[in-house]
Amino acid sequence: MKRSAAIDEFWFQYCRSSAVEGPTPATTCFGDTVEMQNNLCALVLGGIKRATASLARYYEPDGDPLPKPGDIVIVLDGLGMPQGIIEIIWVGRVAFNAVDAQFAADEGEGDGSLAYWISEHSAFFGRQLAAEGACFSETDEVVLERFRMIWPKIG
Asked: Which of 29, 114, 117, 136 is the most exposed place for a label (fewest CB within 10 A)?
């Protein structure tokens, strides 16, 4: 996503309040519709969503570098407006069908069950790949990330 003045200002305010310095970090939004992005952003801001998964095929060697612990990311809502800042605390790679119930619960979506996670993520990844003329398989590799909210502070 392209940077905007709102994103730069949000980062400036964080740096000012936290005595942090550095260039504006990467941004992300979760989901593929405005409604989903707003809902998932609200879960992040509420401290319920503490993890996310993405298809490994979108990373190295031809795509973005893999996330790593310590990465700082600005979370955007469905309109591309900055809402929070997270820090990646753990990254793993597994086959989709190897994701466990604890990770599904950490994602904080729906009822938090593995069954819900499988249903929603297979549909989401299926839509992503269908747009490229590809098919999703439960053996496709996924990148799992756990994160913590660092700003605004929650709780």
From this structure: 114
